[in-house]
Amino acid sequence: MAVFTPLDDAQVASFLSRFDVGELTQLQGVPAGTENSTFFVTTDQRELVLTLFEQGDHEELPFFVELLDFLDEHRIPVAGPIHDREGIALHELAERPALLFPRLPGKHPKAPNLTQCQALGTALGRLHRVSQHFPGHRPNPRDLNWLSAMHHKVLVYISAQDQALMQDEVEYYQSVFGEAPELPQGALHGDLFRDNTLFDGDSLGGIIDFYNGCTGDLLFDLAIVINDWATDADGHLDQERHDALLSAYQAQRPLNATEIELWPAMLRMTALRYWLSRLLVVYVDPPAHDLTPHDPEQFRQILLSRIHHGALPLPEPAVSAGAH
Fold it and tell me: Which parts of the sequence belong to the Aminoglycoside phosphotransferase domain (predicted)?
C-alpha cells in the first residue's frame, strides 16, 4: 500500500475548505506509487487526486507547480494543480507538502497500441515545443554528469563483464556528447513510462507524475519514452510502435541534424540511466518504504540491444496542421 501517511475524512474536509471544489463525500487511498501518499477524493462537485510528498527535496516543489501550471495554460494534457481562493496551490497537510489535482480519466496502457503511441507522440511533441519557452530551471538530476559520478557505486555488486560494459559506456557518452553542439533545451517530464499516462480507450486522458521534471536535452526525454513504449520484452525495438510515436512527435517538433546524429547514443545513455538507477535502489540506496524495486536486468537487456542492433531509422514526420 503506497499510503505512507494516513488521512481521515475530517483532515481532508478541512483541507478542501480552502478550495472551491465542493464538500467531501468519499476518501480512498491509492495503492499504486512508490514515493508519495496518494488519495482519490470525491466531492459533491468533482473527482480529485490529493498527493502528500513523502520524500525528495521539498524546496523543488514550486518548480513542479510552475511547470504544471505552464503546461496546463498551454493546453498540454496534464493535471494542473488546483489553486485555493488565494491563488496558492502548494499547502501542508499532516506535516507533509500537499497538492490537489483534478482526477484525469483513463488507466495505464500495459501494451500500448499504435493509436495510443501516436497520441503520446503528438502530446510529447507539443509539450516539448512549448516547454522550450518555460522560464523555470532545474538541472536534469539523471544526466551524463550523474552517470559519471554514480556508476562507481554499483561496480562492486556486478560482474566483471558488466563493470567493463558500464565503464566503457560512460566513457563513450563522455566522448560523444562532450564534443557535440548543444542539443535543443526545454522542460522535460523525465520519467515518461506507460504508467505515467492515462488512456480512456485510445484517447490520452493525460500525462501524470512530473516529479522527475527538469530542464535539459529534449532528446533525453524522447529516448526514455522510446525505450519503454516501443521496446519488446527481449529489449528489441518494435518498428511499428517506434515509427508511430516518432512520426507523430516529429510532426509537432522535428528533430534537428545534431539530434538525429546523437539519437542512437541517447537511446543507449537513457537505457544505462535506468539500469544504474535500479541497481542503486537494489544495492546502495533502498527505498524508505517496504516496496519491491524494479528489476535492473530489464534495462541491461535494453542497453545491450541498443549497442548490438543500434537505432532504427527515423520515420518521416506525420502531417499535422498543428505543427509549427
Answer: 27-254
Give the chain's residues under pLDDT 50: 1, 321-324
CA–CA gap between residue 169 and residue 161 (Å, rounded): 12
Query: What DSSP character marks residue 293?
Result: P
CA distance 194 to 251: 21
Who contacts 59 (Cβ-Cβ below 8 Å, separation ≥6)?
Answer: none
Contact call for residues 309 and 234 (beta carbons, < 8 A): no
Q: C-alpha cell of 51?
A: 498527493
At 317 the pLDDT is: 86
The DSSP annotation for 15-80 comes to HHTTSSS--EEEEEE----SSSEEEEEEESS-EEEEEE--SS-GGGHHHHHHHHHHHHHTT-SB-P
Dmax (CA) of the chain: 60
- Going from the N-terminus, what domains does the chain have, and what CATH number goes with each? 9-102 (3.30.200.20), 114-309 (3.90.1200.10)
Identify the CA nearest to 223 among candidates 237, 211, 234.
Answer: 237
Please report the pLDDT score of residue 318 as a whole number. 79
Q: Give residue-wise pLDDT tens across range 69-101.
A: 999 999 999 999 999 999 999 999 999 999 999
- Is 0.85 surpassed by the pTM of this model? yes
190-202 burial: b if 16+ Cβ within 10 Å, else e: bbbbbbbbbbeee
Alpha helices in 132-256 (DSSP H): 144-150, 160-178, 218-229, 239-252
- The residues facing 98 across adjacent strands are 52, 91
The predicted structure's pLDDT at residue 160:
98
**What pLDDT does 294 receive?**
87
Dihedral angle, C-alpha 143, 146, 148, 153, nearest 10 °: -140
Distance CA 243, CA 261 (A): 17
